[in-house]
Design brief:
alpha+beta; 6-stranded antiparallel beta sheet; 4-stranded antiparallel beta sheet; 6 helices
């Protein structure tokens, strides 16, 4: 009878991972619980769809408004404090003071006012790599202050590397330098702004995927 009982227990151990008279009775629940864990860790078939990768790619896309909020404060210190940026964007969305809020074309133009620096523009220039350059321009009474930034390099100023333009104003202030960023297209226009307020186009630079080329 004893041998027969152990034989039955042996069969039950194979099918149920335990037996009421077996010395391994305490490990039955542990062994059984491990089975679904092993099944869950099985690798998916190689041709299985990967929707999470697509979602991540879409979430990484930023708008010109996102770049405006993320840009380091040192590039805007002539004009605004960081806490004012969202207020400027809200006003641009409503079209206040002839502002332009164009996410589709990657362009912002805002006029918050100020004694010395009263208007601001930003334009996005997409590169083949997918990482854009961000052009930021502050218009001041002593001339425009243009910087071209690379967010992928921790917002490094790459103006002199990618734009071969002389942005130096006249030392006697007989004229200043103005900059027109494009809302559409890829051309930055450089202006000479005379004392009487008249303007003359002196250079145009077209973005060719990595840098600007004089036209």
């Amino acid at each position: 009878m004893i041998d027969r009982h152990f034989s039955i227990c042996g069969i039950l151990l194979i099918g149920l991972m335990g037996c009421s008279d077996s010395p391994n009775h305490g490990n039955r629940s542990t062994a059984a619980a491990a089975l679904p864990t092993i099944a869950a860790e099985s690798p998916p078939p190689p041709d299985a769809p990967k929707p999470t990768l697509v979602a991540k790619k879409n979430s990484d896309r930023r708008t010109v408004a996102d770049y405006f909020l993320a840009m380091p404060a040192k590039y805007l210190q002539l004009m605004i404090a960081g806490r004012q940026r969202q207020q400027m964007l809200n006003g641009a969305k409503r079209g206040e003071a002839n502002s332009i809020y164009d996410l589709k074309n990657g362009y912002l133009s805002m006029n918050p006012g100020g004694d010395t620096c009263g208007s601001y523009t930003m334009a996005i220039f997409n590169r083949p790599t997918g990482t854009p350059l961000v052009a930021s321009n502050i218009s001041c009474t002593v001339g425009d202050v243009l910087v071209i930034l690379d967010p992928a390099q921790n917002w490094q100023d790459v103006t002199k590397t990618v734009l071969p333009a002389d942005l130096t104003p006249d030392p006697d202030l007989k004229y200043t330098i103005g900059v027109v960023l494009p809302r559409m297209g890829r051309v930055i226009e450089i202006l000479r702004v005379n004392e009487d307020g008249s303007k003359k186009s002196i250079d145009r630079y077209r973005f060719e995927g990595q840098r600007f080329v004089q036209r």
